[in-house]
Amino acid sequence: MTEAAAGAPARGRTDEKRALRLGTRRSKLAMAQSGLVADAVSRVTGRRVELVEITTYGDVSREHLAQIGGTGVFVTALRDALLGGEVDFAVHSLKDLPTTQPENLVLAAVPEREDPRDVIVARDALKFADLPRGARIGTGSPRRMAQLNAYARGHGLDIETVPIRGNVDTRIRYVKDGELDAVVLAAAGLNRIGRADEVTDFLSVDTVLPAPGQGALAIECAADNADLIAALGELDDPFTRAAVTAERSLLAALEAGCSAPVGALADLPPLSAPLERGDLQADGQIVKQMRLRGVVGTTDGSRMVQLSTTGPVLETYDQAMTLGRELAAEMLAQGAAGLMGERAQ
To answer: Is 195 a catalytic residue?
Structure first.
């Protein structure tokens, strides 16, 4: 149910009689993600949750994300609605969040992560490696361009990466209409809107590292709403939060924005291989080490810095932040700064 934002109640203790108002972008994917969160919040609070649709700058701008900076373009309007009392909490794709958290807002929950991988939707159900010479692959992400072009250079493939914008429907239509041979999308998004059957190939994270935080959602609310923070905290997944904190710490230490050609993934190596094979059953394994991988590259794929590090499975915020900063320092020492173009200020 969607309802216009009402007047702002006093915060700090939420009125238990009224529905909670969840701020969300208007896109089909955002609405699907927010709907999942709304159902979960209703279960833990026993209260109705109403979706309040909010238009962000990133939704209306026709410029490519790399041109408008990427950082915060899908987030600012939602945060303004939170601070103005128009909504009680908001749901973001975590990869869209700037790495600096405002003091008056809190990341109340990071639910369990969806599949973080990128996928190909190609004509004739083709795999990435089977695309014809000169294949045109659409993506709006400099990160994806850099890694796809680097892989193609290293494996004798001839591809052209084409910058595109638009929602999932628009992007897949480019393939169906014959304008492009393939597009690259996030597995998590297609899973959440029930279109995973259109995937023709999963890109291994050994080929394309995802964006920091990809596949994870962020549930944000006002820092002074203690009751709601406690309720939303029931949805938090500690491992996902630790992993994305390490990834975002790397991104912040590189001083790179959300649209920079930076990929990062924190995972548990013994449990990652079954996912890559499509086997989600990896129970019973005792894992003591977490791996963090990071990559930065020029969009043509000609120069790349890709490193990894391992450490104990992260248990605290400080441990996660330290792991990310240490890997970023190693990447900067190998020239990563010069591959990102204009760094975030």
So the answer is: no
